[in-house]
Amino acid sequence: MLRLFDVVFSLLGLTIGFPVLVLLTIIGLFDTGSPIFRQIRVGRHQKPFTLVKFRTMSVDTASVASHLASSSSITPFGHFLRRSKLDELPQLWNVLTGDMSLVGPRPGLFNQTELTEARARLGVFDVRPGITGLSQINEIDMSTPERLAESDARMIKTLNAYHYFSYIVQTVLGKGSGDRVNTK
Fold this sequence. Notes:
Number of helices: 8
Strand order of the largest sheet: 1-2
């Protein structure tokens, strides 16, 4: 049932949001010269997939978890995209293709071994990763891998239609600040 919601809402979001996607892409071209960010992430059953989102950091930023990247790498337009969470819009394509869900654990990087091991131990990889979820609205990010994996496992065990919509609405209304970045 939740997969049906994913397909319907991602298709609606991509269709209705198409003008916004085009506008943000054009602005992103002027901001970084390369508005779409692609990165290999850990997916369901620990299979790799290519996550797409709007670029918020300069093109030469190292491919590391957000909490390890320097905040000076974030462009002015990137700050806007992160605050408004519009940088996540292209991930609706990942949802539509079945690599992700609207609600699920945020997909990590393969070099985040502590997080990957904790999630594997707790069965988090049995589900599709998501754009938002319990951890995101409670500001638990990848800087605390064990805590994040435990929160993700708790969400998976209790996920139902009510929680699915609740996490989406809370995210849209601005609950949770997104991934932290290194302020040094």
